[in-house]
Amino acid sequence: MNSEQSLWGRISNSNVFYHFVRDKVAFISASILLLIILAAIFAPLLTSHNPNDLATLDVMDGEIPPVWTEEGDERFLLGTDDQGRDILSAILYGARVSLLIGICAVVLQCLLGVIIGLVAGYAGGRVDSLLMRLADIQLSFSSLMLAIIVLAFFRAFVGGDLYSQFAMVILIFVIGVAEWPQYARTIRACVLAEKEKEYVQAAQVMGFTTVRIMFRHILPNCLSPIFVISTVQIANAIISEAALSFLGLGMPVTQPSLGSLIKSGFDYLQSGQWWITIIPGLFLIVLVLVINLLGDWLRDVLNPKLYKG
């Protein structure tokens, strides 16, 4: 109990928490993001049916507009798509997929980028030059273009059915590998500044191993930029997944993400069924917006020279 109180005490007395509760934009953004995450996690309890289970769908309920229109049905708050799938249920289930892909892809980016950045910054010399040239080469290409090429080639090679089974794993891997240079360059710059400080020299004199010095001594002092980059990269990963799904290279229709939902209703947009695409699109915009606002606030509050709150 004392450890829990001391932990909460450290959090409540921290500079970040002090500015967080006083910044309306950050507080509202975090509240909306938390609400979306909880709604996605508990989607089976909040929705009337599983929109991915074809046995629960009724085609006769297809293309019902939102409840606030004249032809709306109170059973479907945000309307239904052409298959009779409840849009609200589909959005919550789709948000689970998009958030999972975004978070896992960023974890992979972080692992690769942090390790490469630590090695490059601490080793220096030819190792640093080689790793940073690889990062520069990858940054010279559009991450989305690279992902489209890899996914299109992989789908043509293994076939559509096998691709659909492993679509989530493939998307996480491709998006994660495509964005590691963002972390590597930032961590390298931080390591170059930290490795010349006295505590690192003292650790070297005491005979600590290189791995321990990098991960136990230098890395904890580079966590602030990692948190900021990760927040922004989650939003970027969600957008990348949505774009790939919209192009038909993402999640299958049997397990749609937010991008897949937008794509599925795009053909009906001009025929008057606007809600099938517009509502999931607005939900995606809100999700990405609140994550980016939190990322901008975190960047400023962790840098006293920028923060004016």
TrEMBL record:
Sorted UniProt keywords: Cell membrane, Membrane, Transmembrane, Transmembrane helix, Transport
Domain spans labelled ABC transmembrane type-1: 95-295
InterPro entries to which the protein is assigned, alphabetical: BP-dependent_transpt_permease, MetI-like, MetI-like_sf, OppC_N
Sections of the chain in a coiled coil: none
Residue ranges crossing the lipid bilayer per the database entry: 25-46, 99-125, 137-156, 162-180, 222-253, 273-295
Gene Ontology CC terms, in alphabetical order: plasma membrane
Pfam families: BPD_transp_1, OppC_N
GO biological process terms, semicolon-separated: transmembrane transport
Recorded topology in the membrane: Multi-pass membrane protein
PANTHER family: ABC TRANSPORTER PERMEASE PROTEIN, OLIGOPEPTIDE TRANSPORT SYSTEM PERMEASE PROTEIN APPC
Family per record: Belongs to the binding-protein-dependent transport system permease family.
Protein name listed in UniProt: ABC transporter permease
The organism of origin for this protein: Zooshikella ganghwensis
